[in-house]
């Protein structure tokens, strides 16, 4: 054991492998993606094999080696055979550390595919230009839209060529759906969900009816067949009976006898799937414009006024200003009532506020030429005194804002905060979610126990109120005005802490919607079975498929959530030498894996949605947009890198 590095390096020389640097939850999920779905050799580089998710990563079958180094140095990269690796994923550490490691890795292996996590997306885009084959992704940016959409109770969307793809459930599914993405949805047992089930073509229903009934008689609506009616027995009384099915020759006053129809259910064909699967269903739909949170202009104006008042003043100053304003309005009303001249009343009131009013002299009062009676003089005195009050208050506000740097201080929510979303935890994900909600015009209140959290400075620049402190959640949520909130999002890095925050929120406000960040799937299953009006998301579960696909060279445009399951929207390019050349929709699609939802051919720049020609073969330069599960996209990526 040396001071530079230790662990279990590969016993035998290894090549054509993928390296994952990190021991956090995202690294754990990414290793599972690569091993289980892409079936590639993986070497993991961690800083401490006893912390975070490193012990669980070591237990994953298929991991070639787990190597421990305290720092991501040149020696650490050589220890994991960077020279012969096909890909490198940097999913832990600061932005600066990941940039340095990516540039060092390219120096050792110019052809290696590098995917690195960056919180600063703009900086990541600039670094991509310095790498021959690299991609910068943000796990928090990938997962944040799903959390924000879940808090607002509306679908998350992925933008593709001006259309916004989202998941609709049950009654919200429209006739222009693109495809069914899940069925057998049962909130009590989410393991029953089937992603991308086999779907029928337009003529499947007619084919099924033809197979089921053939020439056996009329088909009744609902899949029922009329039973054959018994023939009448021969006998003396039957000769005069009219033939059944023909109307007897009777006069118009005689009603024909109508026999009740006897129906029997047709036995289902075991080879034919039912028309509607049991349980709920989910479908992929496209909108022309992104679904926005419907907030009226009056509510936006009220929130803006309240936020401005909170920014400029504290509670005591607001009380003084409101009392002075009320006194001025009452005095103005008295002047208007006595003089019956609105213009003159405004004029004299403004002079009084500025301290420029001329008082009545005793001689004027004796001669009857004064400006008014006793009540008018009282009103003018009140306005003048209030005007004197406004001047120093305005000066104090200006000094406090400009001189003492009030913008840098976190603010507690005011008494006017209503219908807001409480974000618990200001890490990378919490900061992204709070910023996105704020940009949508939804009022946000943040909670953070660590006063040094990196997200505090980001949200304070936006003027978002922050509740700081490490007290019990009950007290913190009360300060965040839980009673008047619409949703609570718990986004700390600990499952138990997030669950505690959600339960305390539901206890304090039974009607509030709760969205919880949970890594453990079993934990999430119990959560869904226990709470209504709740949602659970996993950052690593949402981000890991995108990182894995990017490591394989695919462009994942976004992820959509079907409860705890992930649907990937990816755009694939058919390049020279790609295994996709010559394949058609029949070859690409498979139940439970891949659906081709759009195609863009090399000869045209237009994206064709729901391209119906299933026999057209792909050529170099074509692009396809697919909705895929993790395993389905892994299969496509395997085909993508194959040579003809």
CA radius of gyration is: 35 Å
Gross morphology is: elongated
Q: Give the overall average pLDDT.
A: 77
Low-pLDDT residue spans: 1-5, 202-207, 219-277, 404-408
Structural class: alpha/beta
Sheet of most strands: 7 strands, mixed
Distance between the termini: 47 Å
- How many DSSP helices? 20
Query: What's the helical proportion of residues?
Result: 25-40%
Percent range for β-strand residues: 15-25%
Taking strands numbered 1, 2, ... along the chain, how are they ordered across the largest sheet? 1-4-3-2-5-6-7
How many beta-strand elements? 26
In short, what is this structure?
The protein has 644 residues and is an alpha/beta fold. The protein is built from 20 helices and 26 strands. A 7-stranded mixed sheet has the order 1-4-3-2-5-6-7, with helices on both faces.
